[in-house]
Each structure stands twice: as C-alpha cells, then as structure tokens.
Design goal:
Blueprint lengths: L1 H13 L5 E2 H8 L3 H13 L3 E4 L2 E4 L3 H11 L4 H5 L4 H14 L3 E10 L2 E11 L2 E8 L7 H21 L14 E10 L7 E2 L2 E5 L3 H11 L6 E4 L4
Parallel strand pairs: 6-7, 7-9
Antiparallel strand pairs: 1-3, 2-3, 4-5, 5-6, 7-10, 8-9
Helix pairs in contact: 1-2, 1-4
C-alpha cells in the first residue's frame, strides 16, 4: 500500500530526534489528514507509537518496526537506512536475542593482549556466545571491504574467548563448562554474500530467521571453543 509506505517513511524521517507534530507528518507524507489519522490509530493499536494531542511519539524499538514494515511494503532499503542510526541496530539485535532466550550485553569493552576491544552486542545462550558487529553501511560492499570487516570481528570474538574468564567481565557464559564464540555481522542492507569465510552476514530483517536456524548450522560456521573449569 503506497499511502501506508509513504507515511512510514515520513515517520522514520521526522522522528529521528524524538516526537513530531502531526501536521508536520501530514505535510511531509502528502496524505489526506483523515487517512493519516486512521493509519496512526492503526499503528498505535499495534503498539508502535503514541498519538498525544497534536504530537506523534514512536515507542522504544518502534522505529525499527516501522522500517521493517516499510521495507515489506516495497520501500527502498537504502533509503530507509538514511533515517536509522547505529544505536537502533544494537537495540534490535539485543531485543531479538533476548526474545530468543539469550542473555545480552551491549557495548562490551575489555582488554586483551595489551589493547582495548569492544563488541557491539554479545548474546549468551548455552552453549553459544554470539559476538555481533552492527554495521550501518548504505551500499553494497566489495569483497575486499567485507573481508576486512569480517577479519576484524573474528579477531574480536577470539580475543573475548581468550580473555575469559576474568573478574572484570561478568557474562553468562563463564558459568558453563564450555562455550562456542561465534562472530556475526548484522547489517540493514543485504550483502551479495550470506557468509564470508564461514562468518554469517545477516540483514536485520532476517535476524529472527537466522537465530531460529542457527542451532542446526553452528558446526558449519567459524567459532572458537573455550572450556571453563569450575573448582
């Protein structure tokens, strides 16, 4: 539905910094006020946004739901990405992992081999530890660029595996007998590759499918195994 898609894009564009006036959404979307109000009421019933007087406010994680809906209605995904920020990718990754039974840590920082490391999102669900790098690229990348991104994330996952257990990091997996640390790249725009050097490249709109299928595919992916002794 073109009208609904246009409204979704306007909401994404105008709510990037918070709530927005209904009249501004109406002006930007070029939709009749009556139809727009009906659609806003529909989105409010779906739990995506609030209509408060003359303002529209999108709920936490609602903007990514708006983006996913717009994409499903045929909106250009590169255009959608202009209105999303990197923090929103981390939020949707964390939300998806938590809803699939993972314990989540965002922006995990640690020191290993004399240098500082950071992983955007770490999800633990026995025996898996997903080390997720959230990428906000807006165009297809060449193989060489993907290679550098994947190599860097593989090193982060291995560094985390090597440094645990440590008193400075209190994450779920250190309670287990062993864990498998998997590097994962999450993006908004699908790559021409689904895997690179056996590291999954996951479009955000396919994240749920990836998590559902992951247990059956683990052994074909790159991972680092680490045992933990509990005396």
């Amino acid at each position: 539905m073109v009208i609904e898609r246009n409204l979704l894009i306007s909401l994404l564009k105008l709510t990037k910094n918070g709530s927005v006036l209904i009249k501004d959404v109406n002006r930007d979307s070029k939709i009749s006020l009556d139809i727009m109000r009906k659609l806003l009421e529909k989105f409010q019933k779906q739990g995506v946004l609030y209509v408060k007087g003359s303002f529209v406010e999108v709920k936490s994680n609602g903007r990514l739901r708006l983006a996913a809906k717009a994409a499903s209605l045929g909106a250009d995904i590169e255009h959608i990405s202009d209105f999303l920020n990197w923090q929103e990718f981390e939020d949707i990754a964390a939300l998806a992992l938590e809803s699939n039974g993972y314990t989540v840590t965002k922006n995990l920082r640690f020191t290993h081999a004399g240098r500082r490391w950071e992983i955007d999102v770490v999800g633990c669900r026995k025996p898996l530890v997903l080390c997720v790098d959230c990428k906000h690229w807006q165009r297809a990348l060449k193989s060489s660029a993907l290679g550098r991104i994947v190599e860097a994330q593989v090193k982060r996952a291995q560094a985390l595996s090597d440094t645990l257990p440590t008193v400075s990091l209190k994450i779920e997996c250190v309670k287990w007998n062993k864990a498998k640390f998997l590097p994962v790249i999450l993006s908004l725009i699908p790559s021409s590759f689904k895997f690179y050097e056996d590291v999954p490249l996951v479009p955000v709109l396919q994240l749920q499918d990836f998590l559902t299928q992951l247990p059956a595919k683990v052994e074909s992916l790159t991972y680092f195994i680490k045992g933990f002794s509990h005396l």
